[in-house]
Design brief:
The protein has helices at residues 22-26, 44-59, and strands at residues 2-8, 14-19, 38-41. By secondary structure, the chain is α+β, with helices and mostly antiparallel strands. It has a domain at 2-43. The longest helix is centred in the C-terminal third of the chain and has 16 residues, at 44-59. The two termini are 24 Å apart. Bound molecules: zinc ion. Zinc ion (ZN) binds at residues 8, 10-11, 13, 30, 32-33, 35.
């Protein structure tokens, strides 16, 4: 489950949706005009996570054989 931020391709409204699975994401529509062409924005949380992730990767001692997804 994730809180995701979207911007409508038609009217430009931004809104958040809680996404539990792929089906939820396909149903996302603009609350202002009902448009389904929405663009997912990079959340503040994800942006903050990028720098810590790369830092962790450089410090990872698993040798690339783990399931951490960073190799
Ligand atoms: Zn819209």
């Amino acid at each position: 489950m994730a809180l995701r931020e979207y911007r409508c391709a038609k009217c430009g409204a931004t809104f958040e949706r809680i996404i539990r699975n792929a089906r939820d994401e396909r149903k996302v529509a603009c609350p202002e005009c009902g448009e389904h062409r929405v663009r997912r924005l990079i959340s503040r949380f994800a942006t903050a996570g990028v720098s810590s992730d790369s830092q962790e990767a450089s410090n990872c001692a698993c040798g690339g054989s783990c399931a951490c997804g960073r190799h």
